[in-house]
Specification:
- Its main location: membrane.
- With 291 residues, the chain is an all-alpha fold.
- It has one domain.
- The chain contains ten helices and no strands.
- Helix 3 (83-107) crosses helix 5 (137-158) and helix 9 packs antiparallel against helix 10.
- The structure holds zinc ion (2 copies).
- One zinc ion binds next to loops.
């Protein structure tokens, strides 16, 4: 049931984004409007995601239920917990996962961890909904730990957690991950209402620039540790250019934005090469041999 829930929500939530990508009307809200995923790209991504789901997630999910019961999680019990009980627990899981991801994701950006594991997820410099879990099975395992360890620890220490709360948390976490990869920033997107929510506008930059914005749900850790400097500089440059081009046509504005994006992406390609050459513990770059 846990596996089915994951599959239904993952692909179900991706469908609206596939439709939106197929409709030119929505292009004005696309963060990188010149990069629309093709049907072939989306299909090959789906196959890789399904491979990971069946080889890694299915066996792990099989272990989840007995582990949860051994830790005293309520599974078949009724009545279900109230929203008042669930809300703070789910917030705690969001907080835990976000920090876990912030640290683990940065580790995945170094040396062999990047080269052999995280590079797969960075195949798309302009992500789309389906690409949220497009990753090496080891990455699914490492980063998935952040999602599931929170509830397990909570259950261990408080002995007061219902599986329905965990399911609701997983559904919300899937929505967060898929929407963050959607590539669209609408005026009604959550981060425009809740300023510390990351959303697509935050994570799309991570894929485009290869650096900055390592967390998942919230912006605070990147802000506190300064791993959003390039992102904020880029946003400021876009704003300044827009101001300077006050009377420009739509085409001129688009051209300006694409020029800035191309610069960021070019820097990202160099940063990626450097990351691959760097030691895991952040040691000096090895000399990259030229052929
Ligand atoms: Zn990354
Ligand atoms: Zn991503």
């Amino acid at each position: 049931m846990s596996f089915l829930l994951h599959e239904i929500v993952y692909f179900g939530r991706s469908i609206p984004w596939i439709i939106i990508d197929a409709m030119p009307y929505f292009r004005k809200w696309k963060l990188q409007p010149n990069k629309i995923p093709s049907a072939e790209e989306q299909w090959s991504c789906t196959k890789q995601v399904l491979f990971s789901h069946f080889t890694i997630e299915l066996p792990l999910i099989w272990l989840f239920h007995p582990t949860a019961e051994a830790l005293g999680m309520q599974t078949y019990h009724v009545p279900f917990p109230s929203l008042k009980t669930m809300a703070p627990q789910i917030f705690l899981f969001f907080f835990f996962e976000d920090f876990f991801h912030f640290v683990a994701h940065q580790a995945l950006h170094t040396g062999i961890l990047y080269k052999h594991i995280h590079k797969i997820h960075h195949k798309y410099s302009a992500p789309f909904g389906l690409a949220a879990e497009y990753a090496h099975p080891a990455e699914v395992f490492i980063l998935g730990t952040g999602t599931i360890l929170g509830p397990l620890l909570y259950c261990y220490f408080t002995a007061n957690l219902h599986i329905i709360t965990v399911y609701l948390w997983i559904v919300l976490r899937l929505f967060q991950a898929i929407d963050a990869h959607s590539g669209y920033d609408f005026p009604w997107s959550l981060h425009n209402i809740v300023p510390f929510w990351s959303g697509a506008e935050h994570h799309d930059f991570h894929h485009m620039a290869f650096t900055n914005n390592f967390s998942t749900s919230f912006r605070w850790w990147d802000r506190i540790f300064g791993t959003d400097d390039k992102y904020r500089e880029y946003r400021a440059r876009v704003q300044a250019s827009k101001k300077a081009l006050k009377n420009a046509t739509k085409e001129q504005l688009l051209e300006m934005e694409q020029k800035l994006m191309a610069e960021v992406e070019a820097e990202g390609i160099i940063a990626e090469r450097e990351a691959e050459a760097r030691g895991v513990l952040g040691g000096k770059s090895k000399t990259v041999k030229t052929q």
